[in-house]
Amino acid sequence: MNVKATQPRHPGIRHFGIGQAGIWIALGVVVLVAGTFLPQFRDPANLANIGRQIGVLGILAIGQTFVIAAGAVDLSVGMLAGLVVVLTCALSPEYPLLPVLAAMLCLGAGVGVLNGLLVTRLRLNALILTFGMMSVLHGVIFLITDRSVGRAPEILRTLANGEVLGIPFAAIVVLTLGAAGHIALSRGRFGYHLLATGGNAESARRAGIATRRVLVIAFAISGLSAALAGLLLAGRIGVGYPLAGSGLELDAIVAVVLGGTALSGGRGSVARSIAGVVLLAMVSNLLNLMQVSGFAQTALKGMIVVAAILLN
Amino acid sequence: MSALVSRQVTRLLLDRWAIALVLAAIYWAGLALSPTAFGDPAYLLNTVRQIAPVGIAAIGVTMVMILGGVDLSVGAVISMTVVVSAAVMDGSAPNLPLAITQACCAGMVVGAINGVLIAFSRVSPFILTLGMGIAVIGLTQMLTGGTARGAVSPGFREVFNARLGDVLPVLALVLVGLAAVGLVIEKRTLFGRQLFLLGSNGEAARLAGLPVRPITITAYTLSGLFAALAGLALMARSGVSGTQAGQGMEFQVLAAVVVGGTTFEGRRGGITGTVIGVLVLGLAFNLVKVICLPYHTQLVVVGAIIITASALYGYLNRTFD
After folding, report:
1. Considering the entire predicted model, what is its pTM?
2. Ranges of each domain in chain B
3. A299, B258: Cβ pair inside 8 Å?
4. What CATH architecture does domain B17-320 belong to?
């Protein structure tokens, strides 16, 4: 009761500063500059393309925002999404769609809960635990297959690649989930408890917040979002490519960090994380339009990671 | 009083010998499952030879982790070293010294950049070095255009793959030699002691007037150097240049260091533990092979080792501190 009363009603606005506004300014600058100097950029087809590209990473970034705001981090999401891609494509030609989808969501949430329980019960550092889990999941994927398998169900392909009135479904999915996530984190009781846990776990615990449960739920959200992202990714690639998810965890963390969420926890905004994803997608799109090689893009991506956390 | 003493003794035993017990247990399991292989010294020494690159990189990472940091860019640095050294060697023997020097310098530069960025800001070394790894992989690919360039100098592989008296692999000796160098740095130099102080209590170290930033930068530079040497060892073993040679090796390195008792929180452990941890990893990999599990089970084993070892040492530290 008390905890809720003493929280600022709009934490985002009260602490409004360069850290919060930075991402919107950066986004605005990129859109203005690119829109002015690169006619291909403002082509509706290109914009729709960007919309499709934010799908997978956007969903991952939503889950990652919850975990990071709770003071942890989840490095296992990339490989988890990859596992979902492989399993979905391998299973869907043989089994009906709904049970497969349900099984994938359960798998994601299950791995998330397992991560959360291991972190809270064994008191492990979340970085090292999820780093180990990443290796385990990587192994599991390759035990299933070392080459592309199966085929993504038609509905996922449509969801990932289709559009309505020029707006890609993927973008609609991300914005819907993002809105729900944003409200859950910034308005609800759970969001307050989560931010309190991330800010100072000991104080939060003494104030009567079930910090362990909050962390487990945060990891479950992250795992669930990884499964959703994996389903969308399966639709986008079309086949069960074993390395589909590799490296996505870092992209998601970078997007969250670009959104001004501190890695130390206690603060975070889903909306700004998604703005971070859009920024990353636009930069990647611009580099493609300017025909920068994929290798140079990899190097640049690493530098963006370094720069983003240095600025953070 | 006696209870306290017995607690202290138990703690000391667990601290010092837990990892040795694990090594013994895993060796015993191997011996039970495959007496011919695990009873054969040549087979065991070959295991050491195989794991040598991981072991060499783990020495440097141990120093960084004692100080409370971590270096996940080692996999990328290993790939970079393989590519750079192959390109400089270009298949001719006279280029060899230059190739080794340049590879080591490249590793130290990456390490120094890591160190400077971490020393002069308060970023998470975990994420920073992960990002640095990606940047290094991208730069390596730009350098080569994505394909393998160059070739190994004649004699390089032959020397390092030789076996003294047909038993003792030179690469295993190199690992032992570098571990000895690491141990001297850790135990017999001021820098080694400063690493532990910095890892135990960074604020106290700073207030006591320790040059915190130079120490941090030196540790990461050494980690880069050892990763470069690991790359050269890998090059000697495989003889093939490729931009993905060291991909994922940071997982094995971290597993070896963590299982050896150097915790992610810093201040504990050391290179002795890491060397035993490397042997545990090597035997575990061979055990996976001996019981005919698919190759990729190794990844699961590595992950499980990282998680279990961290949990176990965390529990021991809480129980006996």
Report:
1. 0.86
2. 17-320
3. no
4. Orthogonal Bundle (1.10)
